[in-house]
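quick one, 457 residues, struct below
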Amino acid sequence: MNRVDADLALQQINQLDDDNQADLSAFPGRNGWPVVGDGLAFFRDTLGYMNHMYAEYGPVFRMRLGPMESLTLVGPDPQQMVMLDSHNNFSTSKGYATSLGEFFPQNLLLRDFSDHKKHRRIMQTAFKNQMLESYMPALHTIIRKHVQQWGQQGELVFYKAVKAALLEVGSEVFLGMEMGAEANRINQAFIDLVTGSTAIFRHNLPGTAYARAIKSYRYMHDFLSSQIEDKRNGDQTDMFSLFCRERQENGDYFSDDDIVHHISFLLLAAHDTTTSTLLTMLYEITRRSDWQERCREELQTVSDDYLKYADLATLENCSYCFKETLRLYPPVIGMARRSIREFDYGGFTIPANCTISTSSLLTQRMPELYHNPNEFDPERFAPGREEHKTHPFAWFPFGGGAHKCIGLHFAEMLTKVTLFEMLRHYRFTARHHDPDFAFIPFPKPRDGLPVTLASLG
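---
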């Protein structure tokens, strides 16, 4: 594969036709049912379906979900090739054009090369260590309030409870808003947008998920746009305010539309992905109570009644559980790109204008990389084992290369603060470990994980 200049690659991206993507019929795989393709099987049992396709067709296979046909590449090597993109041959904007692109347009993920680099600076201030440290008191205050309410209830569905807590985090830390009717409406709007982005039936008919997403998109755009002038002229340090005051290299502010697109996607990426991570982690540490106890004992060694930023790196057991959860249940189970030019991989010539997905869900469970890969075993990340270092892309829940998630340190910080508030005061027991998981749009047991809390006194 020959490398081309990034500016030329941008021009080539603009020439790719969304309505006439490459013919993939020569590749191993299947079409599935008329109209829906394999969408029903994929959504019903995502992990089982992907395992079957990999076993049946090998590490390069085609699949069709509704009208969208794509190639899946399994393994750390294609992940490295696509994420690092040393030849400037893979477009994220086109990769997500028919999914996230409609309701989260022009966000950071949907920008390529120099355009992506230019817009990444809008978020850099908000994710510097100094700013991350400044968010911690608010995180503790919000999460502690919710955990105390959980303790008073004694029983709850953890998915709903933690989602509500992280909604308040998003409202205050990201948007600088207090919870209220508007924040609740924003939460519902995001549920509608995420559901609409993954809908197979994409026609604007009343009562459909797609129609609700269109309505919610208009509401979110209008609401966030109406806040920008006050945010830009104020001195608040929530992320929305920082985005509004960020300037381009020429000294100009970013446009209102740019800010709306970036803050909208950040709310999606940070809120729903961390909800999924905490949910699946609790699922596992209630199955493996020894790991819940190990994390608790570690957190109880912290002398203060809150975590300091410097404490985060010392919480080794919590870190192992965090990484192992993301290995088994990556919030983004596959990362999409569109090929700009044809290239060779795995004995195939893969054409230009082909949607490609690299499967974190399958790769991070490969027995070639991990011992007993379907078992929850956090010590695989400990010194002496470090199975995730068998390949630079054996573990990649945050992606890699230019598009590596800018919020990865915030995600780990929020997870550890939440564990601190939960485990130091309560023992969590799952009433049932539902083996039936939904992986789309984010991994979660379908029953939401009903739990009971016992106070530690």
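The chain has one domain: 6-455.
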